[in-house]
Amino acid sequence: MDTHAFDAIVIGAGIAGATVAAHLSADHRVALIEAEEAAGYHSTGRSAAIWIQNYGPPDVRVLTGLSRGFFEHPPEGFTDAPILAHRPVLFLAPSEQREHLGRLLAEGTGLREASLEEVTALVPALRPGYAVQAAIEDDAFDMDVAALHQGFLRLLRTQDGVLALRSRTGQIERRAGLWHVQTSAGALFTAPVVVNAAGAWGDKVAEQAGVAPLGLVPKRRTGVVIDPAPWQATRWPMVNDVDHTWYIRPEARTKLMVSPADETDTHPHDVAPDELDVAIAIDRMQQALDIEVRRVEHSWAGLRTFTPDRSLAFGWSGADEGFFWCVGQGGYGIQTSPAAGKLVADVIAGRDPGPAGAILPAIDPRRFASIAAASSPL
């Protein structure tokens, strides 16, 4: 078995692992290990990403805000195309969601109430009577996930980092101050630090290392692509109801992506869409919008993985030296990725994490110690 020595091993080459590895590789020798044939095959490669400041718990919103500068002005040579493209987000409130809209406006950032006349001008397919109120986040953006992800992988390689694809982890053990990570490719990686950025597989990687799991919950999210003709939806905002039970977003110029915003508990695997969720997506959309769906052009599903309290879990494992958690991004991993990767790298390197450091107590994985203890063998 070939042995390769590094300063840090990052497990999982989705957006979380790629950003951590890229930031760490500025001053560490880093190996980024990925089980699949391509990086970002699961959640990252199936994301309908849009940067929304008013999305997620407070810790997520901090990292979302801190990431914006990177998206707007990435380092020279990071990508050949802009990462962001302006697209407002429209929140519709049926009568039963009016109170929730009021709370969103009171607690949110950069939101304004919109008249139904303005909403109808923006989305002329809106059915009369569906919404009684609405709000708009004007300063939101589509994100080019592929360009962002590949940019971080390119940065890793230019800083002499190693990306090991088709390298599913097997035995992971700590000996003589080093983690030893065996892979399905027949290689052994060693380093004093292991970063678990394995997403839905995070608890499984922990168990391979003899580390107690956190209780991560992968949840299925479904996407459907339709043709909204005769409506021209290219310039429409992203549209959802306040309670986020469905949403649409223009896709591939003339199409619409529709989702029922489902969160069905599942297990880590190559998830596929369920026909019922596809039907629910179309039904909920059609309650709000007068769009005839002649056929579903494409459907898919991805995994969004949450901690038990739905906040992030970034930090050292209390009982396992050199084991660092970077999991629980849920549906927020893309929009938080630059600041999240920097925060993790700063903590590992012992640097001042700056303003992001304020959320470290809230996202410390050791808050789940009772879950870990309950899952450990006697």
Radius of gyration: 21 Å
- Tell me what the CATH architecture of the largest domain is: 3-Layer(bba) Sandwich
Global mean pLDDT:
95
Number-wise, the strands total 22
Q: Count of helical segments?
A: 10
Query: If you consult CATH, what is the topology of the largest domain?
Result: FAD/NAD(P)-binding domain
Largest sheet: 9 strands, mixed
- Percentage of residues in DSSP E strands: 25-35%
The gross shape turns out to be elongated
User: What's the CATH C level of the largest domain?
Assistant: Alpha Beta
How would you classify the helix and strand content by structural class? alpha/beta
Look at the structure and name the CATH superfamily of the largest domain. Answer: FAD/NAD(P)-binding domain
Number of domains: 2
Amount of helix: 25-40%
**End-to-end distance, in Å?**
34 Å
In terms of per-residue confidence, which ranges show pLDDT below 50 for 5 or more consecutive residues? none
Describe this structure in words.
This protein is an alpha/beta fold and 378 residues long. It has 2 domains: 178 residues, FAD/NAD(P)-binding domain (3-Layer(bba) Sandwich); 142 residues, D-Amino Acid Oxidase, subunit A, domain 2 (D-Amino Acid Oxidase, Chain A, domain 2, 2-Layer Sandwich), CATH 3.30.9.10. The chain has 10 helices and 22 strands. Strands 6, 7, 8, 15, 16, 17, 18, 19 and 20 form a 9-stranded mixed beta sheet that branches. The chain has a 6-stranded mixed beta sheet with strand order 10-3-2-14-22-21, sandwiched between helices. It has a 4-stranded mixed beta sheet with strand order 1-13-12-11, with no helix packed on it. A hairpin with a 2-residue loop joins strand 11 and strand 12. The longest helix is centred in the C-terminal third of the chain and has 17 residues. The protein is elongated, with a radius of gyration of 21 Å.
